[in-house]
Amino acid sequence: MGFWKRIAVGLPATIGLLAWQVTGVDAATVPADTVQNPDTQNAQDLGPASPGETITASLILKVQNEQGLENYIQQTETPGNPNYHKFLTTSQFADEYAPSPQVIEQITGYVEQLGLHVDQVDADGLDMQISGTVAQFDNALNTTIDNFRAGGREFRAPKHIPHIPNVLLNSVLAVVGLDTEQAAQSLTVKTPNVQGAPSPKVVLPQSGSTATNTPGSYTVGDTANMYDINPLYQKGITGKGETVGIVTLSDFNPSDAYTYWSTIGLKTPANRIREVQVDGGGQIDSGSDETTLDVEQAGGIAPDANIVVYDAPNTDAGFIDAFYQAVSDNVADSLSVSWGQPEIDYLAAMNNGVDYTDELAAFNQAFMEAAAQGISMFAAAGDSGAYDTARDFPPSDGFTTPLTVDFPASDPYITAAGGTTVPFSANFSLGSVKIQKERPWAWDYLQNLGYTGLFPIGTGGGVSVIWPRPWYQMGISGMQNSAPGQAFTDSQGLLFGTPFTYQLPANFAGRNVSDLSMDADPETGYLVYDSADGGWIAGYGGTSFVAPQLNGIAALVDQFTGSRVGFMNPMLYDLQRTVGYGPNKPFNDLKDGSTNWYYQAVPGYDPATGIGTPNVANLATALALLH
């Protein structure tokens, strides 16, 4: 999911805008070293990888009867339908929608004829892990795998676009794992380092409370106060019997989460955290604070829930395999992810002649399986406002910053978690800030004081130009089409060797992001306990916090209703349409006209904050009535 590293194999019907097909090729008939891998275009080639080096990769197999699966998912979330909430087990999913055991056996035989080894096939029948040497993969996929250096990092990647043999095209959607380049970024932000800004101070809860009531040092106790979670706690709803799952790309120290919970006064079960290291697991690195806060937030909102952390390397294979492992295990009742990448990454690459839709489809298959099995999923919507590319492609390097959204939050089978700024006041050297009503998070209020360099930091939100508008957003007032006049320009040719401009589709009726929002502004942000970063840290924020918070809320809702509620979006939009907003309703409407640098907060739905913010206890009651 990072810088564009796919094997072209074709496109499922679910991706509406990009509904064109790239034909397969017979590796034996395609000259080697023909199409340059754009990942390596401007990297220093360090020479061929050792021919004897062992590589573990994954073949992502195609879902069978994809339209039937889409229909079944809709039925499971349509009250009154005979299949309402009749979620599938993993084995039922595999029997109905995965390639047959006979087909998997045929694929296994062909893979082994190529000199590769099939290590395992996940229980869902969609993720086949294979291994072999560099020389064997070079020969099997008619490419050359080299070592490269770029941006101070060394990585392994095919020098030229690999080719899947025709015999596998009907069954294999994607091959991932040939490269080790970073796949995604964590979506966290700290308070800005601007002159005269008050430094965030660590404030811990007073005895008898789990909340601090201090912006910048908020805890899960403050979240419970802000979003009406306490009535559930008072009824004994604490996530007991439920399991939350975290998909992440960095390892962490589990003891940090226990320290966070105990220090703020939460009583939690011992040994509630289980780690599953996918593809060998990630590293303790700069992304570890992401994993730490994800666990602290989800596990703090649902203090009696079990936690499974699916920790994978930050590579395309790691990211995809982590999702397939999680949904195939089918242990977690809800999952969240706070890593992502701009959609424009994929579109710009495809505009330069490489088809990357197989990676998007591979993720989407896993999310569809989760929905069919009743697993609620949440993804952070991004922290670069309506201009998600800004963090990857700074204008100073010759890039434009068009409107775009973050993936996987833009996938139609995930609940996209947006961010807000809650009321607060503070004095800065250039003036005072007083936010009186909760609003979309954007640091335009600091830029208005005269501070610079803050555009476009704020909550992600906008319109996908890859995923068409899903059924549950049809007929919802406030839905937007993609804006005209949006172009992504690389004027210096830094990405593909030559300058280019890609015009984004205008007026595309795409999936709107976000769905629900909660506090994410670091100025009104949170405490994190991370021993590798010195212990307690204040002034953390980003939509990274909202996704795991919603994950924990899902555990509470599942316990309250007595079973999995599953993919939440269809029910959320139905409730917004039929029940609506107010103190005794499921949602709060943010409508003060402020923006995420582009989209305005208006009555009802808007991409700046989605439906709005949840009144959790009321939402749980409303969802229970749908059972």
Automatic annotation (TrEMBL):
GO biological process, one term: proteolysis
Residue span(s) of domain Peptidase S53: 218-626
Compositionally biased tracts (Polar residues): 206-217
Pfam families noted in UniProt: Pro-kuma_activ (PF09286)
Stretch list, region Disordered: 198-217
Cofactor(s) it depends on: Ca(2+)
InterPro entries: Peptidase_S8/S53_dom_sf (IPR036852), S53_propep (IPR015366), Sedolisin_dom (IPR030400), Tripeptidyl-peptidase_I (IPR050819)
Gene Ontology molecular functions: metal ion binding; serine-type endopeptidase activity; tripeptidyl-peptidase activity
Keywords: Calcium, Hydrolase, Metal-binding, Protease, Serine protease, Zymogen
PANTHER family from the UniProt entry: PROTEASE S8 TRIPEPTIDYL PEPTIDASE I CLN2, TRIPEPTIDYL-PEPTIDASE 1
Protein name: Pro-kumamolisin, activation domain
Annotated organism of origin: Alicyclobacillus hesperidum
